[in-house]
User: What shape does this take?
Amino acid sequence: MKKCIVILLLLPLLGFSQTKDEGVKFESISLNPLSIYIGGSGGLSLSGDIGLSYKENNFLVSAQFGEELNLFGSEDDSFAELSLSWGKKSELTSWLQWEGFVGLSYFNYKRKNFNAPDDRSITVGVPIMTKLKLMIGNFFSIGPQLRVNLNAVQSVMSGGLSFQVDF
Assistant: This one.
């Protein structure tokens, strides 16, 4: 089932021409190594993005994983998200840029309780991501990134510092 969802998310990218002028272009790669998430409980998350473009459209293939910090014996929640999003980029100044994306995602939420069996919930979500980038050099940027995944199981919000390389 998971393989089918991943294939369906990536299927639109396979139909594009690979010529220089009209094909999909690899734009950027981004890593958010340490985010804090809130949703049901809270904890740490890790996310990564691959930016693509086709004509005037910007696409983002991203993954995010998070797990609760279990300090006081509460439930041990975790989640995984794989998403395909469409968005826009805007250059505010020569050294400051903004990106915003919205799309569809595969969302897996797990709640482990010591008194009950594992409870897994899988659903489709709507990811919304925004990023403010401070251009450190011609190809490297750093800045805050905010993400929200709206879904039927457990909506999750996260924020952290993103490191991005543009090609």
In short: The beta strands are 25-39, 41-54, 57-68, 76-91, 96-112, 119-135, 140-150, 156-166. The chain has one domain: 26-166. The radius of gyration is 17 Å.
